[in-house]
């Protein structure tokens, strides 16, 4: 078979030749890659020379190059354009890849060589090589290399089962999300929805052979349309459809998978000698253990909930006033009411209507004159469109990224629009990882889920969508600026609870005056956003923080509770467990549910945030502190940008990540800026 994945691509930056790749090419390349990886590892094991860094650790870094090339090209397609055939292949290879990895990392002879190098004299190695050696040893131990034959066999079976279940969860959730799109027959039911969004709903209905309007669901519990719709019943229908995904007892139900995955993870942790999966998961993270999470993050729940209740009181007062003014009966605030009345309260307090803001937030301007502009001002890099390259879907945009001196930095793929084959949310992938060992420059991709407009219509964003664009580009910068020798240390290959830190820092530039003024222009007239409106946008930072913190912590601490079970303990009824868990962590309330409930918690059951969803707020401690460092030292400043790039963004996992943080800020992190940002005082927390 002619397969462009079997050798480095000849396209710019070794971009995978997506136009020539299909299911058979991916399958063939993965199969060949696994065989080459096995052969290379066996050669390391069979080496008669005593173990050294060069013949063991460095050799392992090169051993999986062909397999990584195939997988790095394949998985961005699975998530961004996962046709039935692509997802079937992902489900097929998941347990094979798990078994392949287990066979390598549980091999006693290989572990003996790694342990021999790690316990030897590392003083002659560069710091990044010594750090790499230590990480290999930890990885092998967490993979079960120290278990006996029976334990390794049991662990391999669990890993294979979990790998297949994770792919199955993604498949079922995508199908149920599509199946639960809410059908409306009358435009009046969607009163308040902007005309362009109403047109999209009409198009979606026609695409399914239906009259009327079809509202596609999103991955989070709260749908963005809830802030616009005036008809309370319509809001309720959309909210309840969203909240029951994966939990309907039909062929797309995920609850059985969730319960079994939690049990298997607890069993796996016990095999490895940890009391719970949360302990095993945090063992190689910067947080260290779940006790630190309980000490530093759990105390945020009480003040967050108190703030949320104050916001709820204000919303209830607004509901009562409006109902009385209309001569209608009042009603009790419900979860599906929160976004709508928060929008109205925002208008009253700030004299700011989101519908007035959106015309100034056109997608291309936001990306090119906002996200890219901030990066140019801070780091000196430039972006050039490439219309000659082909991605996994015609919607994918290409940008070549260059350093200030014109030298090539990398390639950026931008995939902005939602589609039935795309998973929900927003994320970054690395189709090609930077590595000086292989001489590769980075190729990174950005994925959003914006509704695609009709031909010729502008794509107008909400402030939240703008924030997401800046956030995800922080991940992209982490990949693009990578400047490491060893490929497994490249870019975002840092501990899970550190990886969100750079992306959260990048959010600060969304409302930075110089940046906002550059991208916030009316899509028709090109006129800049009025100064008074821009001031109000910047003032919104502390608004609705009780809701946002409670919603996030609900998911983060629920994830911890699910993965704090010991082997043999059962989740039981998932709804009852969720209710008890939220009560235990002090977040039970009638208004704000977790951002994700277990049946559609894709981060935890379809991805690798299991026991680690806390990482967003853990990283935000570092982020808020770093934002203060930027502000105190000049803000959008090239010298500060160079420091952040050199000491942190370029380092990947070539040294302990907290060393990189301290190299920027000059000290250990301080939680105070986070407490101020979130409206939580030190005394309350």
Characterization of this structure:
With 685 residues, the protein is mostly helical. It has four domains: 134 residues, Glutathione S-transferase Yfyf (Class Pi), Chain A, domain 2; 66 residues, no CATH class; 239 residues, Neurolysin, domain 3, CATH 1.10.1370; 173 residues, Neurolysin, domain 3 (Orthogonal Bundle). The protein is built from 27 helices and seven strands. The strands form two sheets. A five-stranded mixed sheet has the order 3-4-5-7-6, sandwiched between helices. Strands 1-2 form a two-stranded antiparallel ribbon. Strand 4 and strand 5 form a beta hairpin. Helix 1 runs antiparallel to helix 3, helix 7 packs antiparallel against helix 10 and helix 25 runs antiparallel to helix 26. The longest helix has 31 residues. The termini are far apart. The model has no long low-confidence stretch (mean pLDDT 96).
Query: Helix/strand-derived class?
Result: mainly alpha
The end-to-end span amounts to 61 Å
Largest sheet: 5 strands, mixed
Rg over CA atoms, rounded to whole Å, is 25 Å
Say which CATH homologous superfamily of the largest domain is assigned: Neurolysin, domain 3
CATH architecture of the largest domain: Orthogonal Bundle
Instruction: Kindly report the CATH topology of the largest domain.
Output: Neurolysin, domain 3
Count of helices? Answer: 27
Question: Tell me, what is the CATH class of the largest domain?
Answer: Mainly Alpha
Tell me the overall shape. Answer: globular
Contiguous uncertain segments of 5+ residues? none
Please state the oligomeric state of the protein chains shown: single chain
Strand content: 5-15%
Could you tell me the mean pLDDT? 96
